[in-house]
Amino acid sequence: MTDLESGAVRRSYLSDISDERWVLVEPVLTAWKAKHPSVSGHSGGYAMREIVNAILYQSRTGCQWDLLPHDLPPRSAAYYYYALWRDDGTAQTLHELMRCRVREVAGRAEDPSAVAMDSQTVHAAAGVPAETTGLDPGKKSRGRKRGIAVDVLGLVIAVFVTAACVHDNQVGIELLNRVAIDNPSVKKAWVDAGFKNAVADHGRTLGIDVVTTSPPIGASGFTPVTKRWVSEQTFGTLMLHRRLARDYEKRPESSESQIYWAGIDRMSRRLTRTTSRWRDDLPAPLPGLLAT
């Protein structure tokens, strides 16, 4: 990597995107850049790969935008592109394309036929606007609620972030709407008992069979629930990205985008068989994995 000030090659951070992973991301961002030329004709002072490195560094470490290392693009550049890609859907598009590739490599159809839905309440940081947060009466926790729908591989299909005081019914209904719009192939959804009859009724109007699954009778402590455990596992893996350990975003849309970027990081590593640490003994990527 190149140091921004001296032009010298900088040392890589553990969060940096590798050459193999960049092959997956670069075509989408190159096409985006070609469609969004600067009015002045300026190509920009920072390479798209370094912008992605800044976003992934912030996602993984949880630092503030203003505290990005000096050898990464500054907040003015990193957040500029992050916000653009959040608002025009580029981050979600990149996530969706990568998810389809992961499913294809796993021997599954690109479009899922079933999802598992769950919600998670997280504390909000001090700077988060009060009007976008609330108190979850069940968990006695104040902050925001994240709702996700994932496929059987645990890959995110839909995301909805709202105030923690919003009932799971509303979260479930919105998730079903987003699933139906972007993935009309989905015909079944597994949920927990927190999603009431209103969610099942709404699912029927969309052609989605909503099934409530519960732990075995008499089970105590944490017990993985058939079909639905993948959503809980996904929440666990998302928490490896410290930006998601608490909700720091002023806008719920930014919180949703953070989940997409965490998914992009996770899936690109999965496709290239790399871990979160640099190692010399990792297996090579699967044959033909990076083919377009």
TrEMBL record:
InterPro entries: IS402-like_dom, Transposase_11. Pfam families: DDE_Tnp_1, DUF4096. Residues 111-211 form the Transposase IS4-like domain. Residues 17-95 form the Insertion element IS402-like domain. NCBIfam families: transpos_IS5_3 (NF033580). This is IS5-like element ISSco3 family transposase. The lineage of its organism: Bacteria, Bacillati, Actinomycetota, Actinomycetes, Streptosporangiales.
